[in-house]
Amino acid sequence: MSADDLRAQFDAQGRSGLVEERRRDARQARGMYAVFAGLVAVVCLALMVVRLGQGDALGVWVATYGVGVALGGWGFVLARAGHTRWAMMVACIGAALAGLGDSPAFR
């Protein structure tokens, strides 16, 4: 396709359709990132409860899971507020900390 064909297709879409599509995409992104961050928080909390229930001694792993829960919750709040890039970054750091807390070094 040439640039003129693409421009004609873009003009044919109309501004209202484009704006509504972008709003829908942004709403879906906020929802997806909120679910991801919430899942990180719930998994970190569940892992903490399971390890405490197994009788593991308190240690650094509790702090890493706790920070993972807090960052997952913060990522959820950021995603709901529309700050999806920050939400993803914070949730990924929380997931990385959960992985670090689950490492054999902290057992």
Classify the oligomer: single chain
Count of helical stretches: 4
Largest sheet: none
Q: How do the helices and strands follow one another from N- to C-terminus?
A: HHHH
Strand content: under 5%
User: What helical percentage do the residues reach?
Assistant: over 70%
First-to-last CA distance: 59 Å
The parts where pLDDT drops under 50 for at least 5 residues are: none
Structural class estimated from helices and strands: mainly alpha
Mean pLDDT: 87
What is the molecular shape?
elongated
Organism: Streptomyces machairae
Keywords: Membrane, Transmembrane, Transmembrane helix
Transmembrane segments: 32-52, 58-79
Protein name: Integral membrane protein
Provide a descriptive summary of the structure in words.
With 107 residues, the chain is mostly helical. The chain has one domain. The chain contains four helices and no strands. It has helices at 3-13, 15-53, 60-81, 84-101. Helix 2 (15-53) runs parallel beside helix 4. It is elongated.
Structure in a nutshell:
Helices cover about 85% and strands about 0% of the residues.
How is the secondary structure organized here?
Elements: H1 3-13, H2 15-53, H3 60-81, H4 84-101
Provide keyphrases for this structure.
single chain, 107 residues, mainly alpha, 0% strand, elongated, transmembrane, transmembrane helix, Integral membrane protein
